[in-house]
Specification:
The complex is a heterotrimer of chains A (438), B (93) and C (374). Chain B has 93 residues and is mainly beta. Chain B is built from 1 helix and 7 strands; from the N terminus they run ββαβββββ. Chain B has a 5-stranded mixed beta sheet with strand order 2-1-7-5-6, with helices on one face. Chain B has a two-stranded antiparallel ribbon with strand order 3-4. Chain B starts with 7 loop residues before the first strand and ends in a 10-residue tail after the last strand. Chain C is 30% helix and 26% strand. In chain C, helix 1 packs parallel to helix 8, helix 1 packs parallel to helix 12 and helix 3 packs across helix 12. The chains are: A alpha/beta (438), B mainly beta (93), C alpha/beta (374). The structure holds flavin-adenine dinucleotide (2 copies) and FE2/S2 (inorganic) cluster.
């Protein structure tokens, strides 16, 4: 176990975390950045070699590497202990193949990003079915999908770049099914033209219409195959059809990763961490930036990260241009959310025997009669497994309107020895405790 | 010392010694080896990576004797032993 | 709410209330169970599910032994839903003194019709290979079991429903009155009122000597076969017996899922449910002393719960003389999963003025309970 002290700890090395770390180190703070991924970049700037990234990403990753921020990769934060006194925060992280890091800090920036929302449908547990971001991530991790017949089914502007990168990687994208109707997508695409920040996205749209078989108002109703995906059934308002494929990428928008923030007691609203002008949460010393405060894309994540990083370094005022940028991008984000609202049909794809909780193999019928997610968990094990409801939680919310349950330690599965280490770290941080270390 | 332009490492996947590109994750390496059952679910279904980013836990395999590791978060390394659900017999004791 | 009158109202749909519902309904009473939250979501949701015979006192031995035989004879549907696994218990001796006490313990169990096996250093390791080498021995009690008690509670309530019982959830009882309970503006009446409100029993019947005694638990990922029995240190009994402000003991349990549950701790801190990392750390460290390989198992969740504790470690079962119609079934501390069935049968016998199978006097709620701290 290694224990160090820092002025600022940033959890998450995505765009928000990177920008925050850069700003805080530039203001002479000792910063430690922690990410469980093997490399910095988060979801959108994920890479194996920086050369493959766009200019913006390269610039920020470069800037980070020129600072003296200490970046620890491959470490999952499993516990955060907020001491009795303000500014007494202990972060406990575990290395995937062994080792515990304990870091004491007065300021924590939660930049844990977002994950995909999955909608359960028959066959969604088959190997060969991945998230849309999931496929993108696996591609960037080195998986080759060359020659594979790919169906993409989901929603939102993020699915188009994935279609493009799979095509570039030699996969054959058979159809990109966007569940939102044509009208909504068109209105959203047009609205992008009014914001300089989103002109690029508008251009991507134009390209998508030309390059990919983009079907709006269309969704996947089931996947088939025995031990491996073989085909999917697709539907729109008028008709339904089937087609063979080797890879189905599916995801219905993003869900902020608020578990850590909820665990330490930060106020959340609409599933995102509530922050003030300085990106400060309701808990003293704890800030949040990026998708964890609401889905808004990479530009917004960077702006929020910069503001949070400066705020932890004690900046008295917020850079007005950053604040303006943040505001404009938040408007776009809200527009996007409206345009890509999920259609009703998606809520009834799961049949009685369709698995909802993949960790524990709990089917729809086993939980449909319960009143809330706590009952579904205790009576039928839904959400009890390794992912602790990260996948089924949003699905339960969509299907039954149930709110997620309590977040408990560990934040991610952790060795028992790590938990006892965390315990000692916590004991050490509360000086008043006479039996510390016993 | 890697000689070729694409550096490679040798890992053992379910007891089979294979060369895989350096820098890829265990998940990417296993997918390219044609692995479909990374793990077996509680009821015995084959499962493979879903999220690719550490949240779904569908990619859990045993790495160097440590069970339940997320293959999408670990980069391959020379001499690494990886065991999937169906390769459990060959798992190091 | 239905205006019909119940014969018996049970306050609390934990495992104790659920078992009482079955026992009273079986006697032909129209039963109404009321819970402030949901069924099995109180202490019952937080426990370990070890159905165990314990011998802290002759009375405890009698009640646990009796209850265990009732689990064995339970309705098939309830047994199946409860995931009953007769895995047995291995009690581990830490030193020679504990080892030397084992033959007497074995004889005591034999007197109660339970065959056990004294293990030496070698047979202990054979029984549980992950135990640390060099432990002097232990006692194998094959007749103990592990259940999944939330499911057991739901199954008991379902069984009670088939006998006419009704269950009302999310309905707090604010007051127990003579032959009735008050919920908001309504007073529901019945000849028999059962306070089965677990650790909160004294909030409704203030003179009851029941206090919350907090415990921590951790559950791991699946490691099928990691341990084969519930494995606990003999010192667990002392940890449970002595009402110190804080204690931990080695106590691990194989779940039917292949997961391992690790306990246990005891604290007197009122209703503070927060995780005390220091206590959790001590508890895990204690477990790892006995089973070093535990250290590398991956934990998925930790939580706390409140045992309904009484000063003399015996539950309160029987009539409460101060309030007409009131009966008590509460105060089961760390054994309520086990003793729920014995409690319910005993209570039903007393309500029906039948001779109970075991002596009920030691459990009388108004017995003079000796002062707590030993
Ligand atoms: C498929 C997909 C496509 C997208 N396409 C676009 C696009 O075209 N344009 C666009 O603007 N945006 C896009 N986005 C959104 C983009 O990913 C986000 O806007 C951006 O990455 C948000 O940055 P962030 O820093 O908030 O979070 P992230 O980039 O998600 O970074 C969060 C980081 O936190 C780490 N982390 C989380 N929890 C822990 C923990 N407990 N311990 C340690 N580390 C932890 C994660 O490993 C991750 O690296 C896309 C997202 C996805 C999933
Ligand atoms: C960490 C731990 C480990 C344990 N391990 C074991 C074990 O291995 N074996 C074993 O046998 N026992 C074990 N126990 C003990 C066991 O869990 C309890 O003794 C048992 O669950 C008590 O059941 P109960 O029905 O009395 O209480 P509860 O389950 O708490 O039920 C009481 C119910 O009453 C309701 N209630 C309270 N007040 C009101 C009101 N005013 N109006 C309406 N409803 C109300 C509550 O909502 C609750 O649902 C353990 C306990 C803990 C904490
Ligand atoms: S693929 Fe989801 S955790 Fe690895």
């Amino acid at each position: 176990m290694s224990t160090v002290a820092a002025d600022v700890v940033v959890v998450g090395a995505g765009p928000a975390g990177i920008a925050a770390a850069v700003r805080a180190t530039e203001a002479k703070r000792r910063v430690v950045v922690l990410d469980e991924a093997p490399n910095v970049g988060g979801q959108i700037w994920r890479h194996r070699s920086v050369g493959t990234l766009g200019a913006d990403a390269r610039t920020w990753i470069d800037r980070l590497s020129r600072t003296n921020a200490e970046v620890r990769r491959g470490v999952a934060v499993v516990d955060v202990i907020v001491g009795g006194e303000a500014g007494d925060i202990t972060v406990v992280a575990e290395r995937h193949l062994g080792g515990v890091d304990v870091i004491r800090t007065p300021a924590l920036i939660i930049a844990t990003g977002a994950r995909e929302r999955f909608v359960p449908f028959p066959g969604w547990t088959l190997p060969g079915v991945t998230g849309i971001g999931g496929a993108q991530a696996l591609l960037k991790q080195g998986a080759t999908f060359r020659g594979k017949r790919v169906v993409i089914a989901g929603t939102g502007p993020l699915i188009l770049p994935v279609a493009a990168s799979l095509t570039d990687a030699g996969a054959r994208v058979v159809v990109v099914a966007e569940q939102a109707p044509f009208q909504a997508v068109r209105d959203f695409a047009l609205s992008l033209l009014t914001h300089p920040e989103t002109l690029l996205q508008a251009a991507i749209y134009r390209l998508a219409f030309l390059r990919t078989p983009y079907a709006m108002g269309t969704w996947v109703t089931s996947a088939s195959g025995t031990d491996q995906l073989a085909g999917v059934a697709v539907a729109n308002a008028r008709t339904a059809w089937s087609l063979p494929c080797d890879l189905l990428c599916t995801g219905y928008g993003l869900v902020p990763n608020v578990d850590m923030a909820r665990f330490v007691g930060c106020t959340t609203a609409d599933g995102a961490v509530a922050v003030d002008e300085r990106q400060a949460t309701s808990v003293p010393g704890i800030f949040a930036a990026g998708e964890v405060t609401g889905i808004g894309g990479v530009g917004l994540a960077v702006a929020e990260g910069e503001i949070a990083g400066a705020a932890t370094a004690g900046a008295a005022r917020i850079d007005p241009s950053l604040a303006r940028r943040r505001q404009a991008l938040r408007v776009v984000a809200r527009r996007m959310e409206r345009a890509f609202a999920l259609r009703q049909e998606l809520r009834s794809l799961a049949r009685d025997d369709t698995v909802i909780c993949r960790c524990e193999d709990v089917g729809r019928a086993a939980i449909a009669s319960f009143a809330d997610s706590r009952q579904a968990k205790l009576y039928a094990r839904a959400g009890m497994g390794a992912c602790q409801g990260r996948v089924c939680g949003p699905a339960l919310e969509l299907l039954f309107g149930w709110q997620p349950g309590t977040v408990r330690s560990p934040l991610e599965p952790a060795r028992l020895s790590t938990l006892s280490t965390a315990a000692l770290a916590g004991a050490a941080s509360s000086a008043a405790d006479p039996s510390a270390g016993s | 010392m890697p000689q070729s332009s694409v550096a490679a490492v040798t890992i053992s996947a379910d007891g089979r010694s294979v060369r895989v590109p350096a820098g890829v994750t265990v998940a990417a390496a296993l997918l390219d080896l044609g692995t479909s059952a990374f793990r077996r679910s509680v009821s015995g279904e084959p499962r493979a990576p879903l999220c690719g980013m550490g949240t779904c836990y569908e990619c859990r395999v045993t790495i160097d004797g440590v069970a339940h590791r997320r293959a999408c978060l670990v980069t391959v390394a020379e001499g690494m032993h990886v065991t999937t659900a169906d390769g459990a017999e060959e798992a190091p004791a | 709410m239905s205006a019909r009158r119940a014969d018996a109202i049970i306050v609390g749909a934990g495992i104790v209330g659920a078992a009482c519902a079955v026992a009273l309904a079986r006697d032909g009473l129209r039963v109404l169970v009321i819970d402030a939250g949901g069924a099995a979501l109180g202490t019952t949701a937080a426990g370990m599910g070890h159905v165990v015979v314990m011998d802290d006192s002759p009375e405890q031995l009698a009640l646990t032994r009796y209850s265990q035989s009732l689990w064995r004879a339970q309705d098939d549907a309830v047994r199946a839903a409860s995931e009953l696994d007769w895995c047995g218990t291995v009690w581990v001796a830490e030193d020679e003194a504990q080892l030397e006490a084992l033959p007497a313990k074995q004889q005591l169990y034999r007197d109660h019709g339970l065959e056990t096996e004294v293990l030496d250093e070698t047979t202990l390791i054979e029984a549980e290979p992950h135990l640390r080498r060099g432990l002097p021995g232990g006692l194998l009690v094959p007749s103990d079991a592990v259940i999944y008690q939330p499911a057991a509670t739901i199954a008991l309530l379902a069984l009670a429903r088939t006998m006419g019982a009704e269950v009302l959830q999310r309905m707090p009882v604010e007051e127990i009155v003579p032959c009735g309970v008050r919920c908001g503006a309504d007073t529901l009446r019945a000849d028999v009122i059962v306070n089965a409100a677990g650790a909160a029993a004294a909030s409704l019947t203030p003179q009851l000597p029941v206090i919350p005694r907090k415990g921590h638990l951790v559950i791991t990922e699946r490691y099928p076969g990691f341990c084969r029995h519930q494995v606990a240190e003999l010192g667990y009994l002392a940890s449970a017996h002595v009402m110190t402000s804080e204690s931990v003991a080695f106590n691990v349990q194989p779940r039917s899922t292949g997961q391992v549950m690790v306990g246990s701790s005891r604290e007197l801190v009122g209703w503070d449910a927060s995780m005390n990392r220091r206590v959790l750390g001590r508890m895990i460290a204690r477990a790892c002393e006995f089973m070093p390989a535990l250290a590398d198992l991956v934990a998925v969740r930790t939580w706390t719960g409140f045992r309904p504790a009484t000063p003399d470690k015996l539950p309160l079962i029987g009539r409460w003389p101060d309030v007409p119609g009131l009966w008590i079934a509460a105060g089961h501390e760390g054994l309520g999963i086990t003793t729920s069935l014995g409690t319910a049968t005993l209570l039903a016998d007393l309500v029906a003025s039948r001779e109970p199978a075991i002596d009920a006097a030691p459990f009388a709620p108004d017995r003079a309970v000796t002062a707590g701290v030993h």
